[in-house]
Specification:
It contains 13 helices and ten strands. By secondary structure, it is an alpha+beta fold.
Length: 298
């Protein structure tokens, strides 16, 4: 099925709820080739042009189409809009992947190493899910992206991820990741950090260390109280003490990487203190979080 509009796509999914939507297909085809997925039907989204762009809404929100490609998000006009998301898209893989991989595909696949996911979690983005309308029902609902990823409020049969609403904070935001080798590759750990000066808040999400991005909420609240918000942006001023920034990194790492990380079930029962794998990963996360905070506060 190759619909040319969003309405046609949700009608096709309504008629065949077991069908699988496909846009770029980078993750879907890998699952099919590996035998992990055998879809009864596919609904191709490549001809739906309205899902490949973005628009502004009143109230300071960017509405991003689920078909927006990673390569498109890397362009300067988009990078000026949501720089952390552009940075995540830029490192998401080789050009052939970024040219076809989409924002909606990243969310629907919900891979632990999905680079855009911690950014969306830190920005507290909201997804719009569409389906064929019913009597007394508009056919759309909005769900926080973090709820989709964690399964708190998952997508239902017949629903299509159509839009992603991202608040425009007009404030520094940073995405950093560590990989096992040079060049575009899967993250060992990633950190997205967003400043919200209006609320004097810091939002942080850590990716790749768990099945879903993790928000270290206590660390966020603590470091927000350490930031000199009035000094931020002043030439020569120090918005945070370096010791507090380093402590924030350690706080984030300890919150997101458990002591038993990397241990099998038998050794986890005997171990005292963090495993060697946990120590290494905590060191990586701590450095990423500290650097992200420092860059955001410059």
């Amino acid at each position: 099925m190759l619909p040319t509009s969003l309405d046609e796509a949700v009608e096709a999914l309504g008629a065949s709820p077991a069908a699988v939507p496909v846009a770029g297909g980078t993750d879907l085809m890998e699952a099919v080739n590996a035998g992990r997925l055998r879809p009864g039907a596919l609904v191709g989204l490549g001809r739906i042009t309205e899902l490949r762009g973005w628009r502004y809404e009143d109230g300071g929100t960017a509405v991003l189409g689920a078909g927006l490609t990673l390569a498109r998000m890397d362009r300067p006009d988009f990078a000026a809009l949501i720089p952390a998301l552009a940075d995540a898209a830029r490192t998401a893989g080789p050009p052939q992947t970024r040219n076809v991989g989409t924002l909606g595909g990243n969310i629907a696949t919900a891979a632990a190493t999905g680079d855009t996911l911690p950014v969306l979690a830190a920005l507290e983005a909201v997804a719009t899910l569409a389906r064929a309308p019913r009597a007394g029902d508009s056919g759309t609902r909005e769900v926080p992206v973090s709820h989709l990823l964690t399964g708190v409020d998952p997508m239902r049969p017949g629903e299509l991820l159509s839009w992603v609403r991202v608040p425009l904070l007009h404030a520094p935001q940073v995405f950093l990741k560590a990989t096992g080798r040079s060049g575009p590759s899967r993250a060992v750990a990633s950190v997205a950090l967003v400043l919200d000066p209006a609320r004097r808040a810091v939002r942080c999400a850590v990716g790749a260390v768990a099945p879903v991005p993790l928000r270290p909420l206590e660390a966020e609240a603590w470091v927000a109280g350490c930031v000199d918000w009035d000094a931020r942006g002043e030439e020569g001023a120090q918005a945070i003490d370096p010791a507090a920034a380093a402590a924030f990194g350690e706080y984030v790492a300890a919150a997101c990487v458990p002591d038993a990380y990397g241990a099998d079930a038998s050794s986890a029962l005997l171990a005292e203190g963090p495993t060697a794998a946990a120590v290494r990963l905590r060191r990586t996360v701590a450095v990423l979080a500290r650097r992200a905070l420092g860059r955001a506060l410059k």
